[in-house]
Amino acid sequence: MPLYKIVKVNKDTKVYIWKVTESEQELSKAIDLTQYCQNRMLGMKSEMHRRGFLSIRHLMAEAGYVDADLRYDEFGKPHLKDGNKISITHSNHFTGIIVSTKNEVGIDVEMQREKILRIAHKFTPIEEYRTIANTDALIRKLTIVWGSKEALYKIYAQQGLSFIHHINVKDFTFDSAATTADILYHGDLSTYQIRFMEFEGFTCVYALRS
């Protein structure tokens, strides 16, 4: 079973990462889906999405949960029945969850791709990164910023929240593997801890509400 990585963030919070290498049939073994999730899977045309969906249920099992412990609210945000906090991500052949007994949490895994250079202006003031001459470094940095904002959006879960106007990720170095971020929306200011890691051309970012 390719459980790729477990990260103990603090005494209350863990990150679980899966590398999806198994077939859909293999991943279906020992997984009992609710009717709601069976219907969701039936609507997925991509086999990769179905495999990712199933691998997340294996990650939940690693954290001590089954599919029936999970519900989604009207914004599509996942919740655990026991009141613990969870966030879920899927990108290509990597999936991940973060579970916390205390903090509101969000997670995002992204493939590092050149495409991000074309869309950067939509989610961050690109002029802040003009001093980065190395294209690979710029792709890595922008992917971390994008992943941070995705993770924060998953925590906040409010329609109308704008990546570029409402979410501010503080500058960081790659070596720090961490930063902070603020969300200012409708006069409400909230602060978050951000941590990130890179592996096999992918970036994983996770956020905790301070």
Automatic annotation (TrEMBL):
Which residues belong to any copy of the 4'-phosphopantetheinyl transferase domain? 105-196
**Mind listing the UniProt keywords for this protein, alphabetically?**
Transferase
Q: Name one Pfam family in it.
A: ACPS
Please give the InterPro entries that the UniProt record associates with this protein: 4-PPantetheinyl_Trfase_dom, 4-PPantetheinyl_Trfase_dom_sf
What's the domain of life for this entry? Bacteria
MF terms (GO), sorted A to Z: transferase activity
Its protein name is 4'-phosphopantetheinyl transferase superfamily protein
Naturally occurring in which organism (per UniProt): Zobellia barbeyronii
